[in-house]
């Protein structure tokens, strides 16, 4: 299979060529006529599309010339992201637009890439947040059930919260608690946290045995998911906040 059209080149942040604060993905495209740079807020990476025939070095040099634009995008992404009409949120890593519509039900409903919510606008932010917490619990309880079955264990309960310092926890009485904000993370990142906590149902430590089980449960891409969580984590904490 041809590699053209896939994001197969990743320049890590701090790369000697780049000196960029975030990783840059170079995507050669047969159909691309010109260079195009975009900041993928959900994943915290810059995406550079270039014509297939162009050299990586030339494409990268062009991108580095856009440093002012890049810094402006990153600065914007560090602002609080309140759940207001028109805002984009990365639901399961995919951009979804928040829409306030008079004819929509008061319980938000996903319609393609729009999340539509009716009722008085004053309650809009609260309704969106409640919806996301409910959805997060539904999705993550299913992630946990999936890994727990593979591990041959059963949690005594799964709940969602908003702990400031951690993404998940597992108590000695087998209760798993996860941050609802993970529903705004890329799927692999969210599932990694679930696999990690399920592995704690068997080992309440970070011993080599725990790490082996965590790796078996999650499968390939564990290190990548871990580092992606470190990268997108700070941004996840900005959603639903005004300041
Ligand atoms: Zn742990």
What does this structure look like?
The protein is α/β, with parallel strands linked by helices and 243 residues long. Helices cover 37% and strands 21% of the residues. It has a 4-stranded mixed β-sheet with strand order 1-2-4-3, with helices on one face. A 4-stranded mixed β-sheet has the order 5-6-8-7, with helices on one face. The longest helix has 28 residues, at 124-151. The relative contact order is 0.11. Mean pLDDT is 89; it is low at 1-7. The structure holds zinc ion. Zinc ion is lined by residues 196, 200, 206. The site of zinc ion (ZN) has 3 residues, from helix 4.
How would you briefly describe this protein structure?
The chain is α/β, with parallel strands linked by helices and 243 residues long. The chain is built from six helices and eleven strands. Helix 3 crosses helix 4.
Q: How many DSSP-defined strands?
A: 11
User: SS-based structural class?
Assistant: alpha/beta
Determine the strand fraction and express it as a percent band. 15-25%
Hetero groups bound?
zinc ion
Low-pLDDT sequence parts: 1-7
Largest sheet: 4 strands, mixed
Main sheet: strand order: 1-2-4-3
Distance between the termini: 47 Å
Can you tag this structure with a few keywords?
243 residues; alpha/beta; four-stranded mixed sheet; 21% strand; binds zinc ion
Summarize the SSE layout with pairings.
Layout: E1 9-11, E2 24-29, E3 36-40, E4 45-51, H1 56-64, H2 67-77, E5 88-91, E6 94-100, E7 109-111, E8 114-117, H3 124-151, E9 157-161, E10 168-170, E11 175-179, H4 187-202, H5 208-218, H6 222-236
Parallel strand pairs: 2-4, 6-8, 9-11
Antiparallel strand pairs: 1-2, 3-4, 5-6, 7-8, 10-11
The site of zinc ion (ZN) has 3 residues, from helix 4.
């Amino acid at each position: 299979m041809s590699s053209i059209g896939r994001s197969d080149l990743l320049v890590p942040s701090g790369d000697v060529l780049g000196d960029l604060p975030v990783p840059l993905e170079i995507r050669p495209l047969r159909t691309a006529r010109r260079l195009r740079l975009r900041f993928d807020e959900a994943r915290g990476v810059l995406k550079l599309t270039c014509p297939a025939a162009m050299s990586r070095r030339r494409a990268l040099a062009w991108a580095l010339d856009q440093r002012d634009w890049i810094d402006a995008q990153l600065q914007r992404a560090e602002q609080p992201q309140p759940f207001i009409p028109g805002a984009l949120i990365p639901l399961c890593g995919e951009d979804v637009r928040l829409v306030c519509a008079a004819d929509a039900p008061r319980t938000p409903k996903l319609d393609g890439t729009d999340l539509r919510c009716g009722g008085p606008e004053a309650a809009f932010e609260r309704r969106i947040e409640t919806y996301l917490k409910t959805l997060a619990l539904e999705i993550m309880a299913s992630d946990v059930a999936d890994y727990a079955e593979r591990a041959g264990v059963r949690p005594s309960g799964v709940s969602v919260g908003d702990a400031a310092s951690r993404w998940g926890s597992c108590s000695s009485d087998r209760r798993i608690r996860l941050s609802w904000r993970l529903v705004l993370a890329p799927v692999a990142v969210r599932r990694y946290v679930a696999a990690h906590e399920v592995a704690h149902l068997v080992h309440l430590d970070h011993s080599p045995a725990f790490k082996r089980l965590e790796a078996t449960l999650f499968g390939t891409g564990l290190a990548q998911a871990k580092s992606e969580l470190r990268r997108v984590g700070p941004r996840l904490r900005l959603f639903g906040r005004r300041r």
